[in-house]
Design a protein that fits this description.
Layout (H helix, E strand, L loop, with lengths): L1 H25 L44 H4 L5 H18 L5 H14 L1 H30 L4 H25 L6 H22 L4 H21 L3 H18 L1 H7 L15 E7 L4 H15 L7 H4 L10 E7 L9 E4 H23 L37 H22 L2 H11 L8 H18 L2 H14 L10 H19 L3 H11 L1 H8 L5
Antiparallel strand pairs: 1-2, 2-3
Helix pairs in contact: 3-4, 3-5, 4-6, 5-6, 5-7, 6-7, 6-8, 7-8, 7-9, 8-13, 9-13, 9-14, 11-13, 13-14, 13-16, 14-16, 16-18, 17-19
């Protein structure tokens, strides 16, 4: 009897040892962030860029590819780092899965330990844990909660705290990394920034306002804080390409909707395909009212929004949301594409916030201050150097020509999408009815912001010699109808921008002014923008 008991005990101990060894071996392969976002946030096709605009913008830099540093390369013969790693792995897993009331304390413990790794055993092991434990955990939490119906109602607050701490931790390790860091340490820091940007882009693309704003805020914090400390060229490459991708992804619902309409079409049921609108009772009246306010913020100019409606709540609002149902020509239910109105509005809202980040990156502290930039540039970021009239604004002094081209290409895509939307009266009427607006829906604000950022950025970076080349290229490639003249509001927006730009040109030195004169001469303006000649 005693012998039988001993055999059973020894078998149990052996199974435990086998399980322990199997678990350690199982987690030896480092986890990484999935670079291909889910569903609606799937990356669009490569952005169209003609050879004349410069090198094409691709997203290859954001790919998470090995080989990665193995834990054995950091550990010594004692294997203590592996034990430490397993303890942190369990704590990270508990952070995302424990009851909601315990998550703040669990997060505080996790991030305190991760930050302390910079001192002992060292920043390299801390970066390794951020790369292969923390950021994959944050992405898993994001996807798991996003797939649940109303999942963010319960976890949005704690997830915001986690993302904010994670972004701050990445900035901390970026500052901690010594200037003479090894190639392996630099590769780990590069992977850390790449993975954080990928996770935050997924947050930006979430159709939940709080999470989308969170992603925009974390990207801005990373860019502005990291830029202030000085990023290496390969890190700026990541930042600019990530911003380009985020700008493109937030326009994805808009592009899907516009694909069903021809330009200049008055038909609000679609031309290329058929468009229907379905109503669903899947939200509260307060949520429906908030979405209506956001829609007015995105699709109307500030002076077009009724102040009384925008500053008051309507608890009696209908508890329903709307979905655009897009059918391909001659297709049935199998060709159906759904574009929820919430996805469209929240995506464009995030797009406008990202434009502010791009503006701060390019123009914060610019001496070319125009009224059109007031709502685009927020009061933060690095001002131009005091007393240096020729100092470049923002982080232009750290950006290469390729980096600036990537950002300007993203701004051009933003302006192009806004102009295409405004060239479809039928779609504008449809959006107006769904959003409950009293004025025709428009994206004049977005078009004006992107156009102004590009114009002032070019004015800041071009030299006198380059101005002549810019003018000739501008006159050669400017389309005949860059400005639709279908409404008084549209004329007002573009007139304000042109007046501001003319004011900047008038402040230039005589030599530069003479070079710019052919573009700003009244007759040239009429030819370029389609105004009737007097």
């Amino acid at each position: 009897m005693q012998s039988s008991t001993c055999c059973k005990v020894s078998e149990v101990q052996m199974e435990e040892q086998v399980f322990r060894v199997f678990r350690i071996q199982l987690n030896t392969a480092p986890l990484t962030v999935d670079p291909a976002p889910d569903d609606e946030s799937a990356p669009p096709e490569e952005p169209p860029t003609s050879p004349a605009d410069g090198p094409p913008v691709t997203y290859e830099r954001l790919a998470v590819q090995g080989p990665f540093t193995a834990l054995e390369q950091l550990d010594n013969a004692s294997g203590i780092l592996r034990v430490w790693y397993l303890l942190l792995e369990g704590l990270a897993g508990a952070t995302a899965t424990c009851p909601r009331r315990h998550q703040p304390q669990t997060m505080e413990t996790l991030f305190t330990l991760l930050r302390s790794l910079a001192n002992r055993p060292g920043a390299e092991f801390g970066i390794y844990c951020v790369n292969h434990l923390l950021l994959p955990m944050v992405q898993g939490w994001l996807r798991r909660t996003g797939r649940r119906h109303r999942g963010w109602d319960a976890f949005a607050t704690n997830f915001k705290q986690c993302c904010g701490l994670a972004t701050d931790l990445v900035v901390f390790y970026h500052k901690t990394l010594p200037a003479d860091a090894s190639e392996r340490q630099r590769a780990g820091a590069q992977l850390m920034m790449r993975q954080l940007l990928l996770v935050m882009i997924e947050c930006v693309c979430q159709p939940h306002e709080v999470i989308s704003r969170l992603g925009c805020a974390c990207i801005r914090h990373l860019v502005m804080s990291g830029g202030a400390e000085g990023l290496r060229p390969e890190q700026w490459e990541l930042v600019t390409v990530a911003l380009h991708r985020a700008l493109a992804l937030t326009l994805r619902p808009l592009h899907r909707l516009m694909a069903a309409f021809h330009a200049d079409s008055d038909n609000f049921y679609g031309d290329i395909g058929q468009v229907k609108v379905a109503a669903r009772r899947d939200c509260t009246g307060r949520e429906s009212d908030r979405l209506r306010q956001l829609a007015h913020q995105v699709f109307l100019l500030d002076d077009q929004r009724p102040l009384a409606l925008e500053t008051s709540e309507h608890p009696e609002a209908e508890d329903r949301s709307y979905v655009f149902l897009l059918y391909a020509p001659g297709g049935g239910e199998e060709s159906l594409v759904r574009v929820p109105f919430r996805h469209l509005v929240v995506g464009l809202l995030a797009h406008q916030i990202l434009l502010q980040t791009v503006g701060a990156l390019l123009l914060q502290g610019t001496r070319h201050v125009v009224p059109s930039l007031v709502n685009v540039l927020v009061a933060s970021g690095p001002p131009a150097a005091a007393g240096a009239s020729d100092a470049l604004p923002g982080f232009l002094s750290q950006l290469s020509e390729r980096h600036v081209h990537t950002l300007l290409d993203g701004l051009a895509g933003s302006q192009r999408a806004a102009l295409h939307f405004d060239a479809r009266p039928g779609l504008k009427f449809l959006v107006q009815k769904v959003s409950g607006a009293e004025r025709a829906a428009n994206l004049y604000k977005q078009a004006g912001a992107s156009w102004t950022l590009r114009a002032v950025s070019l004015l800041d970076v071009v030299t006198e010699r380059q101005v002549g080349d810019l003018i000739s290229e501008y006159k050669r490639r400017k389309p005949a109808r860059a400005m639709p003249t279908d409404s008084e509001a549209h004329r007002k927006v573009w007139t304000d921008m042109l007046v501001s730009t003319l004011g900047l040109v008038a402040q230039q030195e005589d030599a530069t002014f003479r070079l710019l004169l052919p573009v700003v001469h009244p007759s040239r303006i009429g030819a370029v923008y389609g105004f009737a000649s007097e």
